[in-house]
Amino acid sequence: MKNIFNSLIMSLLVVSTFAQSSFKQVNKVKIEEYLSKLPATFKVTMLVESIEGKVYFSHRADERVPSASVIKIPILIELMEKVKKHELSLDKIHTLTNAEKTGGSGILANIAEGKQLTIRDIAQEMIRSSDNTATNILIHEIGMEAINQNLAQLGMMKTRLNRVMMDTEAVKQGRENYVNVVEINALMRLIYNKKVATPTLCDEMISMLKNCADTATIPRNLPKDLIIAHKTGGLPYVRGDAAIIYTTKPFIISIFIEGFNDETAAEQAIGDLAEICWRELR
């Protein structure tokens, strides 16, 4: 009986040791040390979580930050909700006009007026090249109020679309688009777990996010063959990225930096922070 009891204890210890060794986490000290060496003006907002929502690392996660183009994630989600309800079709044809073209990132502003594009084409370009013309077309199709109502219904109270892309007058008036890293991670988790729209439409959103062409931030230092579904954003006063990183056990990471003078330095910092986390969680 004693031998059986000892064997049982040893088995439990082995299982416990294995569970502890297989449980992934990040080296918080390493991240904190890196953050402490950044320029004093840098304001980093960051959240790293498991796909189930376990927090690996959090820094200023309660803050609301200017979204730049990361706001295009909730726009994409509401588009797919409209498709689910048969209020809009991804195959609907939109004829491009000069009046709706806007500046900033993207390719549609350079395409000839009269070009016919599907809503799917436009959504893909909103994510792939962060096309501002495409984004404004979709905001017009979906409705800004509907996008914000859906965010509220999903429990997202800090993330809001308050203006169209490249509306400098709105910015001067104090109307800015905002995100919160807790909420943007939650939205990415909903897409990954197929809890919004339909499973098929979630798969389509993931495919679009995997095709994001901007690799200057979270993917910057990571292996080129690593699958990353993400959306970046950049303005003169903020640089950000929200991503699902497909390691053996995928994780979600959002990083925003404000207060920089050199955009490349901000991009490098985001890349370095993502790499530290990836090395611990791969």
Low-confidence stretches: 8-22
H/E series, N to C? HHEEEHEEHHHHEHHEEEH
Q: Helix coverage percent of residues?
A: 40-55%
Overall tally of domains: 1
Question: What is the distance, rounded to the nearest whole angstrom, between the alpha carbons of the first and last residues?
Answer: 43 Å
Could you say what the CATH topology is called?
A: Beta-lactamase
The major sheet is characterized as:
5 strands, antiparallel
Number of strands: 9
Strand order of the largest sheet: 2-1-9-8-7
TL;DR of this structure?
The protein is 43% helix and 17% strand. It is of the alpha+beta class and 282 residues long.
Mind explaining what this structure looks like?
The chain has 282 residues and is α+β, with helices and mostly antiparallel strands. It has a single domain (25-281), classed as Beta-lactamase, CATH 3.40.710.10. Helix content is 43%, strand content 17%. The protein has helices spanning 2-22, 28-36, 72-84, 119-128, 132-142, 144-153, 168-172, 181-192, 199-210, 263-281; strands at 43-50, 55-59, 64-66, 93-95, 116-118, 178-180, 228-235, 238-245, 251-258. It has a five-stranded antiparallel beta sheet, sandwiched between helices. It has a two-stranded antiparallel sheet with strand order 3-6. Helix 3 (72-84) packs across helix 5.
